[in-house]
Structure formats: C-alpha cells, structure tokens
From TrEMBL:
Pathway: Amino-acid biosynthesis; L-leucine biosynthesis; L-leucine from 3-methyl-2-oxobutanoate: step 2/4. The lineage of its organism: Bacteria, Pseudomonadati, Pseudomonadota, Alphaproteobacteria, Acetobacterales. Residues 10-465 form the Aconitase/3-isopropylmalate dehydratase large subunit alpha/beta/alpha domain. Its cofactor is [4Fe-4S] cluster. Coiled coil: none annotated. This is 3-isopropylmalate dehydratase large subunit. Keywords: 4Fe-4S, Amino-acid biosynthesis, Branched-chain amino acid biosynthesis, Iron, Iron-sulfur, Leucine biosynthesis, Lyase, Metal-binding. The gene is leuC. Belongs to the aconitase/IPM isomerase family. LeuC type 1 subfamily. Heterodimer of LeuC and LeuD.
Length: 478
C-alpha cells in the first residue's frame, strides 16, 4: 500500500498471503493472514485439538505455539497439595496429552514458567514487535503494548490456525486514542483505560484496531502499557496497538526466548519501523487530557459503568434514555442507591490479580499502600500474582511479607478470581474491590458484585474497608 500507513496496516500488509475479496479504496477487506505465534490454554483449546484428531491433521508449525494452564487451576498456596475438581483435572490432563501428541510445549501448573498466558508470553520474550499473534482468548490484545497485532479467536479458528498457521481475516477500521500531557500523581494506566472506556462506551471501539498514543502513553513503562492494551477489548477494540520504542526493546532484551546478539541488532532495525507514519489517516480519533484523569472505580455491571472515586452512584433519571434501563438493572444487581458517594461503598473482599494488573509493578504499587497497614476487619483479601515467575520475583524483594503482614492471602498464579472458573469465587451478595477487567453479572461468582479499579486502589479499599481514593492515603511516594 502506498502513502503514510498506520502501524496496524503495516503489520497486516506484511502478513498478507493473498486477497480473499476486494474492498473499498483498493484495500482488500478479506485476506488470508499469516500468524506468527499462538498461545493455548486448557479452557478454549480442547475442541480445536479434537477437531484436528477427527480430521487426521497435524499441527503445521508446533514450535509457533505454546500452551499454559491458567483458567481452571486452583491457586492454593501449596501447589503440590492442590486438589483440582474432577472437571478441571480432566481439562488439565487433556491439555497435557494434546501437547504431547501434537508436539507443542505446554506449561503445567507445576512448571516454574506457569502463569496467566498474557503475563507469561511477554516475560518469556516471545512477543516481538511487528508480529501477528492470534489466540483463543479475548485479552490477546495485551501484546499491542509491543507493537503487535494480537487478537482473540474462537475454537474453530484455533483449529484452522494450528493446521495452517493462517487465518481468514477481515481488515479492521483504524482508531486512535491520544492521552495528551503528563500523567498526574496517583493515576495509573488502569485509570487511563477506564476513563477512555467510560467516555466511548463498552462498544465504542467496535470494529476497530485501536492505537494509543500521546505523552502519557510514552511515559508509561511497558507493564502499564500492557494494562491498557489488555483492557482495550472492554471498549470493543479487536486489536490494541502502541508504537514499539526503546522501552519495549529494553524489555525484550535478555529474556529466555528473545533473540540475542547479531540477531537482536538485526531485529531492532525492523522494529524501529513499527510505528504509525506521520500523516497516516485514522477513521476515528479521540483525545483525552491526562491531567483530567483521576482514580477510577466501576459501580455497575459493564466496564463503562464507572466514575472517578469522588463521583456518586448515578441517578438513572439523569442518564441518557437509551442507557437508563441498563443503569437501573445494574444498580439493582449491585445493590446501590443513586446519589451514594462511591467512597462510601463498603466491601467484603479485595482481589489483586489477572492479566490486567498482576505484574511485578502492580504488586509493588499495591505493596506501597499496604506497607505498615492492615486489611480492615471483616474484609477477606487475596492476591494471585500474574505468573509463577512474578511470584518468585516478588518474594525475592519481600513483597509477599508485606502482603501477608497486611492480612492478604498470598496465592499461586492463575486467572483465579478474575472469573469464576476455579475455586476462587465470591459468595452470592459479596462485594469485591478487584484489579481485574470485567464486572459482568456473576463474573466473579454467582451474585457476586465486582468493582474494577487499579491495584493500588484495591489495596486502599482493603485497608479502609470501603472504596477509597488512594491519593488520600498520602503514601504514594514512600
Ligand atoms: C475463557 C476465555 C474465553 C475468556 C476470554 O476470551 O477472554 C476469559 O479469559 C475472560 O477473560 O473472559
Ligand atoms: S486473567 Fe481474567 S481476563 Fe485474563 S485471561 Fe484469565 S480470565 Fe481472562
């Protein structure tokens, strides 16, 4: 394609094998796409493998796939004693068998590299700028932080991908969100993305590849950028992207699976072009002033039903007519009265975990708030590091002691209470401050009530027993 290009189009063009149908402006809408890598989990891959077995097919490029157990496993503190329920054990066993039969490396729960797939891949150095990574999980968008087109696919597409290393693909529209100006003190990547989601709505980026840019994004470390790309799927984006810069190159260097030596130098030359050209045109642009972003919490059952911590629960009568019924229903489920200050909402549980916010920097943020404090009476707090390696690194710097002394349960790694698919669940009616990305009805357990926020905000809520502005704890610089 001629003329200035968006990062998205550059990557898609480089992975285009052939057209599957012409579209507008000389661009094909449908094409056959080469996929560089995939990650498999025990929950969404079984039918794909069964399909391959039935058709007598092999995996075309087994070395381009990695598998990791994350969704259904227990996070019991002592891993070797963990007893999985029968269903979960069956999924874990079938997963291991598929790895053996099809020649794909799978990390089981006892593997030191185990963790949530979207935490594990980057820390292995397996996510490299300019790649296309498709996988059976919607939060595959996380890899956008590396200048990677990452997207979630369904079971039949996983099967197609494993058999051919390609996917039939529909080119997306392009959207850019710019966060202008520096990030205010006490505001995190989670607050930036929650602000955008509230502004454009849970389907605001539907059909688009969403690129993030601006001073506040450039200033973030790679882990914070992953938080944003991870959660971009909650405003409907199919792909999230950021330019690959020096921070990304430094993050990748020296990791177990990343290129090194001359190969790394050669790769970096290509990676330097993994950014949108000046003058490239987006179908839609949104600008947010970072100075106006404050710590966010969700009050409803959709990620866009959220406000800043100094807001109040909205009055359904005061919201747009097309949103009213949704707000009424959400407030009923969440058992919240209009006009209640969000900072008056009391919690029963606090959870730090998930592929959104359980990396080392997230744990450090939370520990900074918890150091020398105790979880409020009546609150049960737990933390599940994003990967076994994050858990070890945190232990090496004594963060586990900070959490345990504050009254948190220090769990093993997995999706844990991000979704109710293992033994970490809310009881009906329990209210949880959570560092996760989804607050749908029943997401953390039937009848459970989720309030999304950053890990530091979860820590603040845990010690006061109610949703709390972390900036008021005056501990941010400690
Ligand atoms: C289980 C899986 C299909 C799902 C996803 O695709 O995102 C899960 O990881 C989630 O976060 O809801
Ligand atoms: S941690 Fe949560 S969001 Fe991430 S893959 Fe697991 S269930 Fe999905």
């Amino acid at each position: 394609m001629a003329g200035p290009l968006t990062l998205y189009d550059k990557i898609i063009d480089r992975h285009r094998i052939m057209s599957l149908g012409a579209g507008v402006q000389g661009r094909e809408e449908r094409l056959l796409l080469y996929v560089d890598r995939t990650v498999l989990n025990e929950y969404t891959s079984p039918q794909a493998f069964s399909g391959l077995r039935e058709a007598g097919r092999k995996v075309w490029r087994p070395q381009a796939a990695l598998g990791v157990v994350d969704h259904v496993n227990s996070t019991a503190a002592n891993r070797t004693d963990a007893v999985e329920d029968k269903g979960a054990q069956g999924q874990i066993d079938y997963f291991a068998r598929n790895g053996r039969d099809f020649g794909i490396k799978m990390f089981d729960v006892l593997d030191p590299r185990q963790g949530i797939e979207h935490v594990v891949l980057p820390e292995l150095g397996w996510v490299l700028p300019g790649m296309v990574i498709a996988a059976g999980d919607s939060h595959t968008t996380t890899y956008g932080a590396f200048g990677v087109v990452g997207f979630g696919i369904g079971t039949s597409d996983i099967e197609h991908l494993l058999a051919t290393q390609t996917l039939p693909y529909t080119r997306l529209k392009r959207m850019r969100a710019r966060f202008e100006g520096p990030l205010p003190v006490g505001v995190t990547a989670k607050d930036l993305i929650m602000t955008l989601i509230r502004k454009i709505g849970a389907d605001g980026a539907a059909g688009h590849a969403l690129e993030f840019a601006g001073e506040a994004i450039d200033a973030l470390e790679v882990e914070g950028r992953m938080t944003i790309c991870n959660m971009a799927v909650e405003c409907g984006a199919r792909v999230a992207l950021m330019a690959a810069d020096e921070k990304v190159f430094a993050y990748i260097a020296g990791r177990p699976r990343s290129p090194s030596g001359a190969m790394l130098a050669e790769a970096q030359k290509t990676w330097a072009d993994m950014r949108t050209d000046k003058g490239a045109v987006f179908d839609r642009e949104i600008v947010i002033q970072a100075a106006q972003v404050a710590p966010m919490v969700s009050w409803g059952t959709s990620p866009d039903q959220a406000g800043t911590i100094d807001d109040v629960v909205p009055d359904p009568e005061a919201v747009a007519a097309d949103k009213r019924a949704g707000v009424v229903r959400a407030l009923e489920y969440m058992d919240l009265a209009p006009g209640t200050p969000l900072s008056d909402i009391r919690i029963d549980r606090a959870f730090i975990g998930s592929c959104t916010n359980a990396r080392l920097s997230d744990l450090r943020d939370a520990a900074r708030v918890l150091r020398g404090r105790r979880v409020a009476p009546g609150v049960r707090a737990m933390i599940s590091p994003g990967s076994s390696s994050v858990r070890r690194e945190a232990e090496a710097e004594g963060l586990d002691r900070v959490f345990v002394e504050a009254g948190f349960e220090w769990r093993q790694s997995g999706c844990s209470m991000c979704l109710a698919m293992n033994d970490d669940v809310l009881a009906p009616g329990e209210r949880c401050a959570s560092s996760t990305n989804r607050n749908f009805e029943g997401r953390q357990g039937t009848g459970g009530r989720t309030h999304l926020m950053s890990p530091a905000m979860v820590a603040a809520a845990a010690v006061t027993g109610r949703l709390t502005d972390v900036r008021a704890l005056k501990l941010l610089k400690a």
